[in-house]
Amino acid sequence: MTISLALGSLESLMLVAVRIVAFLVIAPPFAHRGIPATVKVMLAMGLALAINPRVEAGAASSTAAYMGDLLLQVVIGLALGFLVFLVFAAVQSAGSFIDLTGGFSLAQGFDPMSQVNGAQFARLYQLTAIVLLFVSDGYQLVIGGLVRTFDALPIGESIDLSLVADAATTGLTGMFLATIQIAGPLVVVLFLADVGLGLLTRVAPALNAFALGFPLKILLTLSLSSLTFLALPRIIEALTGTAVETMLGVIP
């Protein structure tokens, strides 16, 4: 029994798989260390097999040209994954902002799963965002956006880095704005609590503002954080749409 494979089809399969692997390495929720690398590679190869019939790419003229195409696909995958990561980083940033204003940042530690330093709310918000992406099928929208990039940006064409830079700048601004929108109400309450403790100390100097401040702010944070936590499903839904639009927006 003889099985023949077209060289152009095999090369295009590898190019598609390289772009997908580079994307999955950095884009949430697949970038989480809790997902084994074997699963990411299997997912990338499965998607590449499904996408490859839609890709029109002939055999490379030389080994150097093919290696250049592979490097180009790595750059495209990393750029698209970074834009998606930048959008969803707003959730973890909001948790870090709450930790900072609520006093929980004093108990931060290294998280080996995400490879970042964070306190309780930063980890909680990040893990909740990942769970919501899988439960609500938001990850399918992210993968669908990645698949559509092969139609808008076929194999062999380069991405416009100026568009990526503009999208990254806009995404960074949007990340800070989303962080304030998520954590803003609770941060305002904690700020007013600090102001109230300051005024109380001026009225009664014998009171220790630090001794009263930490328990009060922790109580307020734990009591009111449920309001922002309940809004996370709608926030993740909106961020998923924004991530797909940002990813497709860098492709002319």
From TrEMBL:
Membrane-protein topology: Multi-pass membrane protein
Amino-acid biosynthesis is among the record's keywords: no
Domain of life: Bacteria
Keywords: Cell membrane, Cell projection, Cilium, Flagellum, Membrane, Transmembrane, Transmembrane helix
InterPro entries in the cross-refs: T3SS_IM_R (IPR002010)
Pfam families, A to Z: Bac_export_1
Entry similarity comment: Belongs to the FliR/MopE/SpaR family.
Protein name according to UniProt: Flagellar biosynthetic protein FliR
